[in-house]
Amino acid sequence: MSAPSSEYLLGYTDHERRRLALQAAVLNPLTEDFLVRAGLARGMRVLDLGCGVGEVALIAARLVGPDGHVTAIDLDEGALRISRARAAAAGITHLSFEQANVVEHHAPQPYDAVIGRHILIHTPDPVAALRQAAAQVHPGGVVAFQEYDLSHAYPNTPAKPLFEKTFQFLIDLFTRASHAAIGVQLFQMFRDVGLANVQSRAEFLLDGGAGCPFYEWVAETMRSLVPKLESLGIATSHEIDVDTLADRLRQEALAVGGCLASPVIVGTFGRRPS
Q: Which residue of 145, 171, 188, 215 lies most exposed, with the fewest beta carbons within 10 A?
């Protein structure tokens, strides 16, 4: 499996870090449930790959408790500064952050678990990245990743043309520039790199109404992606009009009713054979 590009498509900006925080507000309950099912527990040593502003690392730190430790790595020093400040504000001392490339990091000693959320989709060779992750846990250790399936959208009922058009831009971009269907490929990928007892679950969120967080989440995602969308000829900044997009998405949803569907999220975990 290979990708046309190895870059992080959403960039390293303050807008992107805010988008990550918005996304986390939606996804964190799913992630915490996923990590518990994967086997994260008190006292474990955990490596979080591509931690961003620290959302998954903070969840993992709560699950392993002060007797455990979480090491979180990311390339974006700006995001790491935010992560460190958040951990300090929460009084969490068993969580450390390092600037490193997720596909080049080598652990000085094996971890009990390696985790990541929406990381493999941005790597040039996700199978190689997964194999590298699996090599950093001890025999019996856990490998657990959550990834989107951005190869298609789940239909909204009733139809919401603006939301669906906007989502199609995302599908077109990730289909051309990344691994759009990686979520549904995780199960076989885990088996291909030799992990055992693999379990995988696909799910998505439904929400609606005036307070739905999806409107701003989608708008900020598009803000991060506008340069790439324009460079590939998929959409123009004028066509997207990101500064008004959240309000227009909200107005459409309130006018027609029903709910919006988030992207499909696939959580897959397995263990390194003993």
A: 188
Residue 257 gets the label, from left (phi > 0), alpha (psi -120 to 50) or beta, of left
Residue 239 has pLDDT above 90, yes or no: yes
Q: Which residue has the tokens 């994967």?
A: 38
Q: Could you give the domains of the chain?
A: 14-271 (3.40.50.150)
Instruction: In whole angstroms, give the CA distance from residue 153 to residue 261.
Output: 8
Residue 269 token pair = 């975990």
Contact 6, 101 (CB under 8 A): no
- pTM for the structure as a whole: 0.91
Peptide bond into 158 cis (omega under 30): yes
Q: Are 65 and 44 in contact (CB under 8 A)?
A: no
Total residue count of the chain as it appears in this document:
274
pLDDT in tens, 203-233: 999 999 999 999 999 999 999 899 999 999 9
